[in-house]
Design a protein that fits this description.
This protein is α/β, with parallel strands linked by helices. It folds into two domains: 2-162, NAD(P)-binding Rossmann-like Domain (Rossmann fold, 3-Layer(aba) Sandwich), CATH 3.40.50; 167-302, N-(1-d-carboxylethyl)-l-norvaline Dehydrogenase, domain 2, CATH 1.10.1040.10. It has 13 helices and nine strands. The strands form two sheets. A six-stranded parallel beta sheet has the order 3-2-1-4-5-6, sandwiched between helices. Strand 2, helix 2 (33-41) and strand 3 form a beta-alpha-beta unit. The protein is globular and about 65 Å long.
Length: 308
């Protein structure tokens, strides 16, 4: 099976590397030529545009910024739908709008294609290791056909029909962002009340406050870089999509609104390229305290991939 990969950003290039390590022939495309070059140097083929990639492959994986970009990959003048999609697998890892993606999947299926949605959760280190969690939706036969590619990148969490993966990803990120914003308040409160950050962190782990954000992301606060591998710009894009989904469902959203406002404030103060956990830096700075902790806090982007 020859696999195409479109979107070689921070997460995408590492997911594509996992597919290459698994032994698949790889065709890659990105709007930035410099992102393609390292893969070509390692034996991958260069895809000129999305239509060119899908025409040369049995399956194509996409992982781009958001809804506008993935719509361009499908509907653009050199997109998938401008050429034959018959029998082709399309596996999308993008965080996007469930409503839009269900529309695109119907168009792709009408053209003879086989769509699978598999947006991911985790961080860049999980992409490097190839153990990302993927929320996978689609027809059973299509998911089974895509399984070898999916398992090269990580773990499958089956969530039902196509489109449900995008829903799962958005509500996952809804909880993630709320918790990230709350951690800053909890850490600073503990510090001001006499509980040092490293003591607080160890005490919280394994209890009712435990979460991926607490165990994985708090060290980026200790180190002072606040994890720029996932910038505020992406957080704000995801939160806008979450708000769109909430509006469609009519659910209450006070906590999400407060979190969105906090991330907007972080973007205004530090810039859209600042790390996601600068949402906690706001609270730290405003309280006039430091949450730095000495230690060997390995940044997630410096994790080493598996040998092979």
């Amino acid at each position: 099976m020859r696999v195409g990969f479109i979107g070689l950003g921070t997460m995408g290039r590492n997911a594509a590397a996992s597919i290459r390590r698994a032994g698949f022939d790889l065709v890659v495309h990105d709007i930035r030529p410099e992102a393609i070059a390292p893969f070509v140097a390692q034996g991958a083929w260069r895809g000129e545009d999305p239509a060119n990639v899908i025409s040369r492959c049995d399956a194509v994986v996409t992982m781009v910024f958001g809804p506008k970009e993935i719509e361009r990959v499908l509907r653009g003048p050199d997109g998938f739908l401008s050429t034959s999609c018959a029998g082709k697998l399309w596996i999308d890892l993008t965080t996007s709008s469930p409503k839009l993606m269900r529309e695109l999947s119907r168009e792709f299926r009408a053209a003879g294609g086989r769509p699978v949605d598999a947006p991911v959760t985790g961080s860049v280190d999980s992409a490097i290791r190839g153990d990302m969690l993927m929320f996978v939706g689609g027809e059973d036969t299509d998911v089974e056909a895509a399984r070898p590619i999916l398992e090269a990148m990580g773990q499958i969490r089956r969530v039902g029909n196509y489109g449900n993966g995008y829903v799962a990803k958005l509500v996952n990120n809804q909880l993630w962002k709320i918790h990230a914003a709350a951690i800053g308040e909890a850490m600073v409160t503990a510090k001001l009340a006499g509980l040092e950050p490293e003591v607080w962190w160890e005490a919280m782990k394994g209890g009712a406050a435990e979460s991926f954000v607490l165990t994985h992301d708090v060290p980026s606060i200790f180190a002072g870089h606040y994890d720029p591998s996932f910038p505020i710009a992406l957080c704000l894009k995801d939160l806008a999509l979450i708000q769109e989904l909430i509006a469609e469902t009519g659910a209450r959203h006070e906590l999400t609104d407060a979190t969105h406002a906090r991330f907007k404030e972080a973007g205004e103060r530090y810039g859209d390229g600042a790390g996601e956990m600068t949402v906690c830096k706001l609270i730290e700075e405003d309280a006039g305290v430091s949450l730095r902790v000495a230690g060997n806090w390995t940044p997630p982007w410096e994790v080493q991939p598996p040998v092979g």
